[in-house]
Amino acid sequence: MNSRSSDLTQRPEWLALASHRDAGSGGDLATLFAGDDQRAARFSLEHEGLLLDYSKNRVTDESLALLVALARAVDLPERIEALFAGGRVNPSEDRPALHTALRMPQGAALEVDGVEIGRQVHGVLDRLAAFCERVRSGEWTGHSGRRIRHVINIGIGGSDLGPRMATRALGPYTDPNLGVRFLANIDADDFRACVAGLDPAETLFVVCSKTFTTEETLANARAARAWLLEALGDDAAVAKHFVAATANPAAASEFGIDPEQCFEFWDWVGGRYSLASACGLSLMLAAGPENFREMLAGMHAMDVHFRSAPLEANMPVALGLLGVWYTSFFGADTHCIAPYSEALAELPAYLQQLEMESNGKGVGADGAEIHHATGPIVWGQSGTRGQHAFFQLLHQGPRLVPCDFIGFARGHAPVADHQDRLMAHCFAQSEALAFGHAGPPEKACPGNRPSNTLLAPKLTPRVLGQLLALYEHKVFVQAVVWGVNPFDQWGVELGKNLATRIRGEIESGAAASPGGDSSTRQLIQRYLALRGEGE
Ligand code: F6P
User: Fold this and answer.
1) Residue 218: helix, strand or coil by DSSP?
2) What is the pLDDT of residues 173-187, one digit of tens each?
3) Alpha carbon nearest to ligand 1 atom 10, residue
4) Residue 298 near residue 462 (C-beta atoms within 8 A)
5) 3-state percent breakdown (helix, strand, coil) of the chain, nearest 5
6) Which among 2, 219, 325, 347 is least surrounded, fewest beta carbons within 10 Å?
7) Whose CA is closest to 409, among 430, 434, 426?
8) Segment 15-35 mean pLDDT
9) Helix, strand, or coil here: 208?
C-alpha cells in the first residue's frame, strides 16, 4: 500500500538517495568515464534496435540501485500491472487509463468491467481503416462528387498535438495527394490561413474532440461548417465533409455528423494518450492504415518491454528514474528535448502536454498536499536549430538542465552528407555538455551536465511508436514515484470558466464583474476601446 504522498521525502529509500547525493557519490562525469572504459556499454539499454545511452548521467551502479529501491518502495511493479490490467489508476475520475489497450494486437483479450476491450478497440480500428481506404482511393467523394484532396483536423491539446506531431514525423510515409492541416487555436487568422487556397468541395474536416464540448474546437468546427456551406450551399454537404473522432457521439451527431462517420473512443483514454485511438484518424488518412498499424505495433512492443522487463533493465523506468534524480535531488526545474530530426520538430510540444499536463500537480493521487517537486517544465527544439538559440545556457548557464538527444542513423532521402553532419552535432553536444573544457572564465564550459541519447536506425512508423510509448511510460513511472495522478487535469478548468465570464463581459461591452480585479478590468476596457478603433 502507498503511504500518503506527503510522506515520500521521509522514506528511508528517499533519505538514502539524499545522503548519496550529499556524499557526491553520483559524481563527476569525467571521473566516472575515466574510471570505467565499459561505462557506455554498461549504462545503455536496447529495445528492438532503439538504443538508450544513459551513461552521460551523474549516476553510479549504487545510484541506480537506490533509485530502483525507491521505485520498489512506492510499488512501481504493482502499479505498472494495474495500469495494464485496467485498474482504476485515475482515482479522481474513478476510471482506468487503458491507452495500452489501444495497441494490443488483434485477438489479445482484456476484459474490464465486463467489457471485452480488445474487440471494441479493433472494431473501431477496422472502421477507421476502411474509411481511410475509401478516402485515399477516391471512392469517398465530397458532396459534389469531387475527390477529397485536403484534410483539416480540428482539435486542440491531445486532439491536436499527437496527430500533428506524428503526421509531420511520418511525412515520408504520407500521401502527397492528400494534404493534411491542423487547426487548433481559436484565432481567426489561423482559421483563414488553414483554409487558404483550399477548395471546399475537396476538403474533409476531422473534428477531433474527446468531449466534443471544447470551446475552441466547436467554434472552429462551426466556422468550418459555415465556410463549407457558403461554397456548397446545401446542408446535406456536412455529412460528406465532416467526420468525428470522439467519446461523445451524441454531441457529434447533434452537430450534424453522420453517426456512420463518427469514430468512437472511450472515456478511459486520456486526451494526451489518445494518438493510438480514433484521435489518430488524420494521421491514418495521411499515412495510411498499414503505417498506422506499424506505429501501434511499435507502441505495443514498448508496452510489452515496460510491463515485463526487470526494473533494472527497463527503458521507461530508467528514463523516469533519472528524471526523478535530477528533479528531486538536484533541483532541476526543466528538461530539454532535442530531437536531431526536423521531422520530430513537434515532439517537444507534444511531450510538453504529455509530461506537464500529467505530472504538473501539487496534490497527490491520494488527495494529500505535496511538498516535493513534481513534473519539470519540458521544453526544447530540433537540433541543430536549438544550438544556435538556447544551447549557450545549457553549456554555461548556472542552471542544471538535463537533456534528451534523439537521433537516427539514416534519413529517408539523403542529401549530400547532411545526415553525418547532423549527427556529428548531436553527439558533439552531449560530449560538450558532459565533459566541457577548460579556458578563461568566459570561454570555459564546466561540463558535468547530464543527458540521455536515444539512437535508432531510422524514423519509421514502428520506431515512432516505440519512442512515444517510451515517453508515456516514463511519465507514469515518475507519477508513481511522486505520488500524483497523471491522468487528470483539473488545473485547466479555472481558466476555461473565467474565459466564459469574461467573454460575457466583452459581449455586453463592459468589464462588469463586481468581484473582478482592477488589472483584468483595465485590460478588458482597453481591449473594448481598441477593438472599436479599427485599423
Ligand atoms: O484543456 C485540456 C484538455 O482537456 C486536454 O486534456 C485535452 O487533450 C484537450 O483539452 C482537448 O479536449 P477534447 O479532446 O475533449 O476536445
Assistant:
1) helix
2) 999 999 999 999 999
3) 157
4) yes
5) 55, 15, 35
6) 219
7) 426
8) 93
9) strand
What is the tens place of the pLDDT at every residue in 123-145? 999 999 999 999 999 999 999 99
- Contact criterion met (CB below 8 Å) for 210 and 274: yes
273-312 exposure pattern, b = at least 16 Cβ within 10 A, e = fewer: bbbbbbbbbbbbbbbbbebbbbbbbbbbbbbebbbebebe
Provide the 3-class DSSP secondary structure of residue 321.
helix
Instruction: Measure the CA–CA gap between 484 and 367, rounded to whole angstroms.
Output: 9
Residues with Cβ within 8 Å of 222's Cβ and at least 6 positions away in sequence, in order, are none
For residues 16 and 169, give the distance between their C-alpha atoms in angstroms, rounded to a whole number. Answer: 42
Beta-sheet pairing, 115-116 with 150-154: unpaired
**Cα 372 to middle of ligand 1, angstroms:** 27
CB 329 within 8 A of CB 320: no
Gap between the Cα atoms of 488 and 224, Å rounded: 30
Strand locations in 97-169, DSSP E?
A: 111-112, 115-116, 150-154
Contact (CB, 8 A) for 281 and 447: no
pLDDT digits (tens, 9 = 90+) for 352-375: 999 999 999 999 999 999 999 999
Atom of ligand 1 nearest to the CA of 493: 1
Residue in this structure with the C-alpha cell 551536465, named with its chain if needed:
449
Residues in CB range of 214: below 8 A, 6 or more apart: 155, 156, 157, 159
357 is catalytic: yes
Copy the grid coordinates of residue 194.
488553414
> Residue 334 — φ and ψ, nearest 5°?
-130, 165
Using 50, 70 and 90 to split pLDDT, how confident is the model at 104?
very high
Collect all residues with Cβ–Cβ distance below 8 Å to 176 and sequence separation of at least 6: none
